[in-house]
Specification:
2 copies of one chain form a homodimer.
Chain A (H helix, E strand, L loop, with lengths): L3 E2 L2 H23 L4 E7 L3 H16 L3 E7 L5 H13 L5 E4 L9 H7 L11 H9 L7 H14 L6 E5 L6 H10 L3 E5 L6 H5 L4 E4 L17 E4 L3 E6 L2 E5 L4 H4 L5 E2 L7 H20 L8
Helix pairs in contact in A: 1-10, 6-7, 6-10
EC number (chains A, B): 1.5.1.5, 3.5.4.9
Protein name (chains A, B): Bifunctional protein FolD
Catalytic activity (chains A, B): (6R)-5,10-methenyltetrahydrofolate + H2O = (6R)-10-formyltetrahydrofolate + H(+); (6R)-5,10-methylene-5,6,7,8-tetrahydrofolate + NADP(+) = (6R)-5,10-methenyltetrahydrofolate + NADPH
Chain lengths: 295, 295
C-alpha cells in the first residue's frame, strides 16, 4: 500500500466551497445568481439520480437552478425549442442536457443547438475546437477534474510523460489536449494500440478512461507514477451483490503507483464540482466580470 | 542510402490530376465550376508567390479562381466585409485568406468570420472541433497531405506508433488528431519534451513539424521508420548562397529510415494539391453531391 490516495471527494468539496464563496460577489456585481438549467428527457433512473445530485449541488452553491423535465416521447423539435428559449434567457448561464436522450432525438443536433458560451458541459463542437486550438472555452467536466487533481498533486506537469488510455470525445481526447497544453508529452492509447502495457509503463501520469473493469494492472505501471482512474464499472461481488470498480486494478496498482485515485471517491465527485465551476465561469464571462482566481 | 524516397511532387501531381478529372462531372451536375476565392492583403513577396501558385493551380484544375488583392493598409472591417460577401456568393465554394495579415488586422477574427463550410484551409474553430470530435469538416492542407503520403506508402496505419514533433494548430495538433483517427498510437512531442531522441526512436511514423533546420538526427530514428518532414528552413550554404532543408537531417536519416520525404519535393507540393481537393469537396457538399472517391 505505497501509493498516496488522491482524495477526489475532499478536493471536490473544497472546489465546491470555493465556487460557493465566489457566488455572493458575482450576485452583488451582476444583480442575480449564476444560473444553471438542467434538462432531463424521460425517466432513465440513473439520469434522474444525476439530475437530482446536480440540482442539489447548484442549490448548495447558492446558484439558481432551472430544472426542466420532459416526457420520454418529447420530439426533437420541442427539445430544440426549449434549448432556444434557454439560450435566450439572460438568467441562464449554463445549459446541461442530460444524456443519453431517447432514440427519436439526435444528441448531436441538440448539443449543436446550445449556445457555446452556455455549454458548461464542453460538448459543443465550438468548445472542442477552442480546446484544440488553445482558445478560452469550456472543457468537459470529467477531464477538467482529472487535470485539477493532477495539478494539485504534482504542481507543474511540464515535461512529464502522460499516457491517456481511451479516445472518447468526452474524456480521452479533451484530456490529451489539456495535458499537451500543460506541457506534458502525451500519448493517446486505445483499443488498437499494440503493447498497451509497455506503452503505459512509460508514463509518469496515467489516465485510464476505457470502461473496462480493472484492466490496468500493476505491471503496467512505472513505479511512482500518478494514476487517475476515470472508469466506473459495476461488477459482480459474489453472494448476489455488486460493487463499483475502476479501470485500474486498484488493490495491486496501489503497491506500485506514487499516487492513485480510488473508485468511488476519486474522479467521480469532481465532475459535478467542475460543472459548478464552469457555470460560475460562464456567468462571469457573460456578465463581463473576471472569473475568480483559483478555480 | 537505404530509405525509399516518398515523392510528394509526383503524388501531388497525381492528386491534382484526379481533382481536375472530377471537375467536369461536378460542373455538369452543378451548372458551374468549383470556385476558390483567394484573398491577399498587402505586398509580402512570399505571400504573393503562394497566391500566384494557388491561382495557377486552380486554373489548371479547371476551377474558377477569384483573386482579391487588397492594399496593405486595408482595415479589418473592410476585410471582414469582403469575407461576408464571399460567404454569401454562391459561386464561391472555398475561401482562403493568405496569412500573415498586416498588424492592424486580427487573424483570429478574420478566420472566425469565414463560413466553416467554405473554410478549405481548415483553420476555423468549428473545423478544429469537427476534427477533434470525428465529424466531417475540413482539415488543414499540410497535415492532410502528410496523411495521404503515409497511407499511400503504408496502407493501413492501424496500430502503428506515431510521434508528431510540434504542436502547432496548423500542423502538429491536427496531424495528431488525424493519426489517432487512423488508429495509430500517437505521441505529441514539443519543446518541453524530455529525451526527445528517445521518444522519437519509438516511432514507426515520425512527422517533424518544428521549423528547426535538420534537428532530427539519424540516431533518433528507429530503423525502417517512415519519416515525414514538414519543415522548410532556409540555411546558409556557403559562398554567399542559401539552400532549403527540412527539420530532418536528410543525408544521415536516409540511411536509417525505411522511407522519407525529401525537402523540397516532399510535403510541400501536397499543400496546394490538398487545397484543390478540399475545394472540390466543399463544392460537392454545398451542391449536395457525393464527393468523388479516391480523393
Amino acid at each position: 500500500m505505497g501509493a498516496a490516495l488522491i482524495d477526489g471527494k475532499a478536493f471536490a468539496a473544497g472546489l465546491r466551497g470555493r465556487v460557493a464563496d465566489a457566488v455572493p460577489a458575482f450576485a452583488a456585481a451582476a444583480g442575480r445568481a449564476p444560473g444553471l438549467a438542467v434538462v432531463l428527457v424521460g425517466e432513465d433512473p440513473a439520469s434522474a439520480v444525476y439530475v437530482r445530485s446536480k440540482g442539489r449541488a447548484v442549490e448548495e452553491a447558492g446558484m439558481a437552478g432551472f430544472e426542466h423535465r420532459l416526457p420520454a416521447d418529447t420530439t426533437q423539435a420541442d427539445l430544440l425549442a426549449l434549448v432556444a428559449t434557454l439560450n435566450a434567457d439572460p438568467a441562464v448561464d449554463g445549459i446541461l442536457v442530460q444524456l443519453p436522450l431517447p432514440p427519436q432525438i439526435a444528441e448531436d443536433a441538440v448539443i449543436a443547438a446550445i449556445d457555446p458560451d452556455k455549454d458548461v458541459d464542453g460538448f459543443h463542437v465550438v468548445n472542442a475546437g477552442r480546446l484544440a486550438t488553445g482558445q478560452a472555452g469550456f472543457v468537459p467536466c470529467t477531464p477538467l477534474g482529472c487535470l485539477m487533481l493532477l495539478q494539485d498533486r504534482l504542481g507543474s506537469l511540464k515535461g512529464l510523460e502522460a499516457v491517456v488510455i481511451g479516445r472518447s470525445n468526452i474524456v480521452g481526447k479533451p484530456m490529451a489536449a489539456m495535458l499537451t497544453q500543460a506541457d506534458c508529452t502525451v500519448t493517446i492509447a486505445h483499443s488498437r494500440t499494440r503493447d498497451l502495457p509497455g506503452i503505459v509503463r512509460r508514463a509518469d501520469i496515467v489516465v485510464a478512461a476505457v470502461g473496462r473493469a480493472e484492466m490496468v494492472r500493476a505491471e503496467w505501471i512505472k513505479p511512482g507514477a500518478t494514476v487517475i482512474d476515470v472508469g466506473i464499472n459495476r461488477i459482480d461481488a459474489g453472494a448476489g451483490k455488486t460493487k463499483l470498480v475502476g479501470d485500474v486494478a486498484y488493490s495491486e496498482v496501489v503497491d506500485v503507483a506514487g499516487a492513485i485515485t480510488p473508485v468511488p471517491g476519486g474522479v467521480g465527485p469532481m465532475t459535478i464540482a467542475c460543472l459548478l465551476r464552469n457555470t460560475l465561469v460562464a456567468a462571469c464571462r457573460r456578465a463581463g466580470l473576471a472569473a475568480p482566481e483559483g478555480l
